[in-house]
């Protein structure tokens, strides 16, 4: 290309001269390096991988009658006006005003949002958060939770015995269950009139490309491992996990499993892209009510997984006593029954079933909301993983999700 | 020209000799902004990409180091996703150009005689922006689902195999990318074609050029700035897109792009160095590709 002569216009001319000067020369390179160093110093402020555990914030509940509660969508009773009746009564009774926020839509994204503040022991803007077992396990392990004072939660005596001593939190010192559910099989009753009995039925050639599994590693892998005869709550390791991973990889690569999704799997069930899937129990009750009684849920013959979302008080929260007061309130059987009737998940509060009898006897018989001992014995809790195991197993599972 | 408006013909050509302090002072907020919100995150990203796992650390705990091996690792594990990202982006860009050019030509040239029609068509191009990108993509997922009218009709006409499906395939992802980025291609094309001086086209045909030759030798070169701007506005975001290819939208496990890999590494496996290394690779690759492209298409003044 030839060099164009400078234009006549004096202003354009001087602009070009300026622009040429500004081109990279040694001086600007040095200046840029200086700015880069400044940025480096700034970036360093963001902190790195420290291991020291943060310390709990001082409790100011006595002078501050407020509480911020971060929870999942559609996870508490709600009336037509958008109010939460049980919470309104709690405020009337205790004078603690609750700021209920639907701030959690995924364990991982929520963790990604708050982890840096937690590591520094800062207030994350929530005094009470409900997260799933395995995420709670991570928070407790990393010291991101405050120890609960059980004297403030006398109703904790209503906690069902099977949930009193999880391996990640013996004696429930840091966490208290909010709601739980099963992961099991669901199918479209019109397309599969015969139904499904076991996870292996999902691999039937007639369902090729119409099967979905959950992107929640513990639920999908848990169901497959149970089918393989592994006790997921017990002592298993790389070999058992690897066998299940190989099976799932084969089914995904062959196209038998069409997709692996989180909450959005419900859209696929409704649009019938998916005819059979590993799903969460409460969701099926909800979509059956919404879109006609089209789907059926069953715990697989070899067993399904049982998970719980748990209350915990983040390390930086200055309102722990208020949080404990609220937990205690929701452990009253009649309050728990009211919530369970609305959210369709399993309540961990003993006596809630009897209380639900008064609201709606049919509801109280629903095994997916008020399971009896027999139903509960078919559901298993995925054992807690160490940090290294979590990293390794999750990476293997993700490699299937990413097709690599 | 805009600058000429400020100049008087008798003005003496005098270059500003000393830098005005006020000018520097006015630049300060801009520079501070860039350092705080661009340079610092970039440096932080670069440092993160070189971190190494903490030997005794929990999940997601890394120490600063100089572990350039991260780059080798991510390329060897995710090379398919890197190739796929740029492949999909390229196909989507070419398709978007093929759809947008006639459209922009019609709005910008053919419809010049009817300003009302021109305005109406522009509104139609822009209208999709009134609805969230996510909602539109979700809507397509429903429209193209297995039991939808379109897919069942295609199957009834034997244009699709009975067990074929559309969502979760590469076609669906490329379709989504093309659809979502067409306005970004159409608008820059429209702005250059709208200014196209038709007398050049007349001159071309006066010189016995066939309509195709006129298009190739006159219209395309004159609309080159629009083509370059449109392809850049489509290709760059498409290569880094993680919505269309997401398993929650139009993609499946075998259509995952770099954006999805970065998301999974960052949020789920908490492998921050891998996510950061991939981000740097994505940015560097785009920078190189765009640099070469702009250089070759002879429109350096765009940069």
UniProtKB/TrEMBL annotation, chain A:
GO cellular component, one term: periplasmic space
Subcellular location(s) of the protein: Periplasm
One Pfam family in the UniProt entry: SBP_bac_8
CDD domains cross-referenced by the UniProt entry: PBP2_PotD_PotF_like
One of the record's GO molecular function terms: polyamine binding
Domain of life from the UniProt record: Bacteria
Residue ranges of the TM segments: none
GO biological process, one term: polyamine transport
Protein name: Extracellular solute-binding protein
Organism: Agromyces agglutinans
Lineage per the UniProt record: Bacteria, Bacillati, Actinomycetota, Actinomycetes, Micrococcales
Automatic annotation (TrEMBL), chain B:
Ranges for domain ABC transmembrane type-1: 82-293
Superkingdom per UniProt: Bacteria
Gene Ontology, cellular component aspect: plasma membrane
PROSITE patterns: ABC_TM1 (PS50928)
Keywords: Cell membrane, Membrane, Transmembrane, Transmembrane helix, Transport
Gene Ontology terms describing biological process: transmembrane transport
Topology term for the membrane: Multi-pass membrane protein
InterPro entries: MetI-like (IPR000515), MetI-like_sf (IPR035906)
PANTHER family referenced in this protein's UniProt entry, alphabetically: INNER MEMBRANE ABC TRANSPORTER PERMEASE PROTEIN YDCU-RELATED, INNER MEMBRANE ABC TRANSPORTER PERMEASE PROTEIN YDCU-RELATED-RELATED
Protein name, UniProt field: ABC transporter permease subunit
Species of origin: Agromyces agglutinans
